[in-house]
Amino acid sequence: MTEITCKLLVIGAGPGGYVCAIRAGQLGIDTVIVESTKLGGSCLNVGCIPSKAMIHVAEEFEKAAEAAAGKTPFGLTAAEPKLDLKQAVAWKDGIVQRLNNGVAGLLRKAKVKIVHGKARFRDGKTVVVETETGPKTIQAEAIVIATGSAPVELPFLPFGGNVISSTGALALTEVPKRLVVVGGGYIGLELGTAFAKLGAKVSVVEAQDKILPLYDAELTGPISKRLTALGVEVLLGAKALGPTPKGDGLRIETADGKERSLPADRILVTVGRKPVTDGLGLENLVLDMDGRFIRIGERCETAMRGIYAIGDVTGEPMLAHRAMAQGEMVAEIVAGLPRAWDKRGIAAICFTDPEIVSVGLSPDEAKRAGHELKIGQFPFAANGRAMTRHGEAGFVRVVAQAGSELVLGIQAVGQGVSELSAAFGLAIEMGATLQDIAGTIHAHPTLGEAFPEAAMKALGHALHI
Ligand SMILES: Cc1cc2nc3c(=O)[nH]c(=O)nc-3n(C[C@H](O)[C@H](O)[C@H](O)COP(=O)(O)OP(=O)(O)OC[C@H]3O[C@@H](n4cnc5c(N)ncnc54)[C@H](O)[C@@H]3O)c2cc1C
Q: In what residue span(s) does the Pyridine nucleotide-disulphide oxidoreductase dimerisation domain sit (predicted)?
């Protein structure tokens, strides 16, 4: 058996793991990273990147279809669009491949050793990796668990046949005529919306009484409206029961307790993600768990000295940028730098239509935390750039503490607001007040102008409403 020794071993090369390894390499730490599938993890291969590529394809197709139907308000017409979904998927796979190669190049540049295979703990300092050429034993002073997450499977609706996960949905080479999405969270709605734009008749089955349960009704309102306009049937308070006897649909129990069948060529199950710990040999360690997730402290340390955990395997918020920030921090801690998790906010985005972005506290969360509030909201209907993009739905909302005027949270819903997350994140991280935002010149005409306007509204003197 080959033996490798190193200072830092990272298990899993998703955004958490590969960023940790790169930063460690930059700091001169002798680092090994183990990956059982492809570099880049869920995010790059079957998550963030491929989903946004397919959302883009759907948006372009919808624009062309609108023009073909003569529905644009500015007189654009075009021929009936046709989409070769196989080619679109190949284009998406090409982007993924380029990014895979990019990650490999960055790891090599940082002098990180890459080992392909599945890692299993033997003890707190030793991991055995099953590689194509046989088992390799790796001994490390510090080990980072960055094994990520996988889609939750419903026992009465297992993946296979016409029941697919987000990974299956991103690989479809034909648009299903009828798609039922089980779960109205961001992954289900992003993909459901994309397939609706590509021509599928989409139904969304959500057990709770609202879509995107983590966001308030003001933020989700424009998304519900758009889903209706796209012909998406949203069944709230409804439970999936299992496939129809012929396998041509889904049996559900509706909110009023009645059983109904929804015809479907494909059933996309997006009911959450679970940590990947099976086969990792955690029984050979003594870690504290938080349910099925690994419990961590403010330095991403686990209950065992020298073992860290980062990213989705540590629970919510399961977001790529959180995993990356944790990875970078842990590398610096292993290098002996004085770091701890001191972030004030982590932006969460739904790439739905329109998009939602939220950083920091929502009005309800801020009230629950006991703050007296000043809230300002500015509608895109009064923003010139939104009008010129034909995207007037939505708003920017700023939540501040009354008195100090410290901004506690910023939310927006609207076309293209994901790009505003940078400004929102910076404002929260830098401890901005309403006056700081109102006093910053925002270029005209941009969607970003709605940000100082919302701050001015909270201060009682918005200029454009
Ligand atoms: C459809 C979809 C869309 C998404 N969109 C977004 C988005 O827009 N923005 C966002 O921030 N997040 C998004 N996410 C979530 C994002 O993908 C995750 O938060 C992110 O990938 C977590 O990173 P990670 O490094 O913790 O784990 P992962 O990316 O899951 O990587 C873990 C890696 O560890 C490897 N591994 C597991 N076990 C072992 C083992 N025993 N040995 C060796 N290797 C192992 C796996 O093969 C995997 O490559 C999306 C997810 C999905 C499914």
A: 346-455
